[in-house]
Amino acid sequence: MRETARLETPRLILRPRRVEDADALHASYADPDLMTYWSGPPHTDIEQTRADFVRHASDWRAWAITLRGDDSAIGVVAAGEKRQGNVSELGYLLARTHWRTGIAREAVSAVIDRIFAEGQRRVFADTDSDNSSSRALLERLGFTLEGHLRGEWETHLGVRDSVIYGLLREEWNATAA
């Protein structure tokens, strides 16, 4: 697993996520609306959020999204290598109070920059087909809809379809230029 290095943007600092960030992020993980399209139901207590952070610490690199000058986590962006050194999957969550501010785009962009700078060739995201906000973010970032998997996930909502969005390094570099 690669290092989860600190990343900086004009408004944000993305630092390695810590178990203690569960305190700041628990309200988001417990929010039924925010967690609608997550792979599991809203968290019922802080211990569940902490346990989730510990459980995923070894298989995904996770960055806490913080505003410059305030170290409190307001969200998270995570990357899991799916094909060693070549392909990573992205996931993200942002506290509702920061929606529609451009923060998610800025944070996810910084992680994409990092992944491609490490030499990976592709990133992808797997999202619920009804998650229009996540789909719109991916499309604004230049991701291409690559597939629709029917009946792919069994979640707290029941069996759900999944859509796969992908982005190649050369596509990202072309949009950055």
Task: Give a description of the structure.
With 177 residues, the chain is of the alpha+beta class. The chain has helices at residues 21-29, 46-55, 103-117, 132-140, 169-176, and strands at 7-8, 12-16, 61-67, 75-83, 87-94, 122-128, 144-155, 158-168. It has an eight-stranded mixed sheet with strand order 1-2-3-4-5-6-8-7, with helices on both faces. Helix 1 (21-29) packs across helix 2. The longest helix is centred in the middle third of the chain and has 15 residues, at 103-117. It is globular and about 45 Å long. The two termini are 29 Å apart.
Short overview:
The protein is α+β, with helices and mostly antiparallel strands. The chain has five helices and eight strands; from the N terminus they run ββααβββαβαββα. The two termini are 29 Å apart.
Keywords:
single chain, alpha+beta, 8-stranded mixed β-sheet, 8 strands, 29% helix
Order of helices and strands: EEHHEEEHEHEEH
The main sheet orders its strands as 1-2-3-4-5-6-8-7
User: What does the overall shape look like?
Assistant: globular
State the helical fraction: 25-40%
Specify the biggest β-sheet.
Answer: 8 strands, mixed
Number of strands: 8
- DSSP strand (E) fraction? 25-35%
**Quaternary organisation:** single chain
